[in-house]
Amino acid sequence: MSDSTPEQNPRLLHSTVCPKRDPLFHNLITLITLEDLGSGEYVNIKQSEVSSESESSSIQIHPDQWPSIRKSVDQMVREIHIAKTEIYQNK
Fold first, then answer.
1. What is the distance between the alpha carbons of residues 55 and 67, in angstroms, rounded to a whole number?
2. What value does the mean pLDDT take over residues 77-83?
3. Whole-number Å distance between alpha carbons of 39 and 32
4. 3-state helix/strand/coil string of the chain
5. Which of 26, 32, 46, 81 could form a disulfide with 58, with the two C-beta atoms 3.0–4.6 Å apart?
6. What's the half-sphere exposure (Cβ side, CA atoms, 13 Å) at 19?
7. pLDDT of 22-68, one tens digit each?
8. What is the pTM of this model?
9. Band of pLDDT at residue 1, cut at 50, 70 and 90
């Protein structure tokens, strides 16, 4: 590298999550991007339309907010698993 060229740092700026073996245009696709509009970096999560009647929607997450948000989401997901287990045990 020449002295005038700054060292490059590759960064992961977006990720696509979709069901296995389904195409990228699947209606359950989730796009996760790292963005910065001048006030600091944040994560943007956008989910494509789930039904033909709904629009896509997104949320922006500031890095300082992530631990609390993740903790709450993880708690809720655990509650779903507990509820499913209880339902199946009572059948």
1. 28
2. 84
3. 19
4. CCCCCCCCCCCCCEEEECCCCCCCCCCCCEEEEEEECCCCEEEEEEECCCCCCCCCEEEEECCCCHHHHHHHHHHHHHHHHHHHHHHHHCC
5. 46
6. 7
7. 777 777 788 899 999 888 889 998 886 655 555 667 888 888 888 88
8. 0.63
9. low
Give the number of other CB atoms < 10 A from CB of residue 1.
7
Query: What's at 2, amino acid-wise?
Result: S
Residue whose pair of structure tokens reads 């809720």 in the numeric block = 76
Backbone angles phi, psi at 47, to 5 degrees: -110, 130
Residue with tokens 């389904």: 22
Range 60-75 burial, b when 16+ CB lie within 10 A, else e: eeeeeeeeeeeeeeee
Break the chain into its structural domains and give their ranges.
Answer: 14-89
